[in-house]
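Hey, quick one: can you model this chain's 3D structure?
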Amino acid sequence: MHGKGAGGSGPGDREAFLFEEGRALLWWYVEEVRGAFPDDPSDPRAPLFPSERLAKSLAGIDGLLAPPVVPDTFRRALKMASHEYLRGPVSELFPHLMRHACATHNYEAGMPLWDVQVLLGHVWASTTVGISRPRRATRSGRAWSLPGERFAG
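Sure thing. Here's the predicted structure for all 153 residues.
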């Protein structure tokens, strides 16, 4: 995924990780939905998430690949779906929030801070500490207000 970056890091490739439940959801999509698009999903150049918008004049051409969903389309769809389905303290999702959530959930599940740092591709641990903010008790039963306290304690 190509992200915008923050704090002067500039645009660059970012990895997006799935929650545990995401694996089953992704397989469902690949097996049940992806094949419904007009291109050949087994083509190595085919995008995982193709756009539904293919010009009608091009639709009958064999071997044509559907264009990938562009980031803005994904952001809008995520925002609309979150407004429709989320009923809680978080009412709007966006890709970077999901990245923060993944880091926090991994940290709360016991992943060492340094491993979360590597997973996110951060150079500085202080960047990771600013992203991973657990809000409830960890498996040990002790709650920390910041990851740095867990590391120091």
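One thing worth noting: The longest strand covers residues 2-3.
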